[in-house]
Amino acid sequence: MKVLFATSEMYPLIKTGGLADVSGALPQALSNLGVDIKVILPNYADLKNEHIDTKLSIGLVEILGQNVEIFKTRLINSKLEIYLVDHPTFSARKGNPYMGPDKNPWHDNPDRFGLFCRAVVALSAGGFNEDWRPDIIHNNDWQTGLIPALLSESELPKKIFTIHNLAYQGVFDRPTFERLGLPWTLWREDALEYWGNMSFMKSGIVFSDTVTTVSPTYAEEIKTKEYGYGLDGVLKNKGKNLKGILNGIG
After folding, report:
1. Long-range contact pairs involving 63-72 (C-beta distance under 8 Å, separation at least 24)
2. pTM over cut 0.85
3. Is the pLDDT of residue 250 over 70?
4. Tens digit of pLDDT for each residue in 8-50?
5. How many CB atoms lie within 10 A of CB 3?
6. 2-244 belongs to which homologous superfamily?
């Protein structure tokens, strides 16, 4: 089984919260068990390169008129391979991956992570001169939420989406949806449309085969109006395909 683990942060390379810890631990544990798993994340300017081997470019492709390059490397003293998606909005911008010095989200976050999602999809389809193709793409939080939607016409790879914090949903206006070049078939109530806006998080939930959360308790909580942040109905509709798995327990 081949698994591509898509994330916006990974310890010890870049960390803002618990997502990085899971992204650093789970793929490594699965790799140690013999799973053919690789991690993909943005090539941030503040990435701690001392923890990885030399970066080798595997290809450059044009996505929505932008040149996007992917580098391959691996963690020091590990066989776990890592893909790094390179674009100036990641590699030429120091600081927090999501927020500027004023503590407000970067104005182009939907464009940045939209490009990241498209790069993941391109890689999974054999782009960037890579023959390795995943059977499963495991996506994490809103920054990877467009990946399942972009793959919605394909049965494979299977799509898993993990919610680490439902409060951060990647909600943007309709002009952003238009700018991202997404098909209009996705602008509907049972897809990306969310109260007149678009939601990356909703995309990940709706179009994934399985949705997981960080604990069984949290999986139940987010199906309530109190903790569902407007997505409780969407989550209820997943039925048995919404699962809570306690961090650290497989």
Report:
1. 63/115, 63/118, 63/119, 63/122, 64/114, 64/115, 64/118, 64/180, 64/181, 66/115, 68/115, 68/118, 68/119, 70/40, 70/119, 70/123, 70/128, 71/43
2. yes
3. no
4. 999 999 999 999 999 999 999 999 999 999 999 999 999 999 9
5. 20
6. Glycogen Phosphorylase B; (3.40.50.2000)
